[in-house]
Amino acid sequence: MKKWLVATLSVAAVVTASATAQASGDDQAAFNRILKQQQDAWFHEDGRAFAETFTTTADLVTFNGDHLRTREGIAKGMQYYFDNYIDHNHIKVLDETVQHSGSDLVFIVRTTCLVQPPDTDCRDGSLSRNTNTLVRRHGRWLQQSFQNTRVVALP
Predict the structure, then answer these.
(1) Out of 5, 31, 59, 60, which could bridge 68 as a Cys pair, Cβ 3.0 to 4.6 Å?
(2) Half-sphere exposure of 15 (CA within 13 A, CB side)
(3) Domains and their CATH numbers in the chain
């Protein structure tokens, strides 16, 4: 129990100490490219392109709480949702916070919603907050984990 507590406090200290670091221009550009790739894949309802922003061992927890594992699982799961449940819409980012925890690990928290064309405002009930954990491997940033949570609970 003590070892777990010390390890947890150590990780918390590293995250807190690194949280104020700013993303370099190159890093922020990479984060923006990943977001744009996800937004484009979502709009075009392409599960494979959406999953390409993830590592091969990544996991994703969806808006409804489903847990998709591995890039292949994310591709298949997202394609199923696109084909059966997700209407033609696009993701709108309302705010973003980037927190570094070392040079190769970053946490990005975004508040997003879905917009149904031709509308420009958020669709009712689509407001969510997502936490993106990105890792840099071989000089390339990819998502290791993504959790999307409703801001307003279902009735």
Answers:
(1) 60
(2) 12
(3) 2-150 (3.10.450.50)
Say what the pTM is. 0.81
From first to last of its 155 residues, the chain has per-residue pLDDT tens of: 434 333 333 333 333 333 334 557 899 999 999 999 999 999 999 999 999 999 999 999 998 899 999 999 999 999 999 999 998 899 999 999 999 999 999 999 999 999 999 999 999 999 999 999 999 999 999 999 999 999 988 77
Tokens of 27: 């890093």
Return the sign of the alpha-carbon dihedral for residues 24, 25, 30, 35: positive
Token pair for residue 115?
A: 């917009």
Cβ burial, residue 144 (10 Å; 0-12/13-18/19+): middle
